[in-house]
Amino acid sequence: MTPKEFEKHLARCKMQISRMMRSDGLPYMVGSRLVDMMKANFQTQSFFGRKWKDVKRRTHPTKWQLRHADSQRLILTGRTGNLGRSIQFKPTNGEVTIFSDVVYSAVHNWGGRAGRGGRTVIPQRQFIGKHPRVDKEVMRIIDNAIKKIL
Question: What are the angstrom distances between the C-alpha of 46 and each of 20, 21, 56, 58, 99?
């Protein structure tokens, strides 16, 4: 390959990489995969292996709870599963944001007080956030995309 051909090849690669960084390229691929990973946390009842604190309805069930399926359902799934299904992503040029638009998602993800007057203490049961497995998956997707270009 002559220096001129190599220069053209590099220019093509640069153009493909910049095209890949648009919101419909790499950010979309990363966001889609990360949403799947975050939703999987609801099935494992953990944040990438760090188990969530169990719920009162299972540790100290009332007589009513013992007779109903609610006492056995997964943590944070509720009867509707809205919280787990609410995880979305928004790709923009060069980045992606993973979020939940459910109003109570933050108190579950970070822990805190809820209810009337903040009398109920909700323990942290993180399902969205930074984690080494997330970073590793993002790097894997980026590496694969760059290898295809080069």
Answer: 33, 31, 17, 16, 17
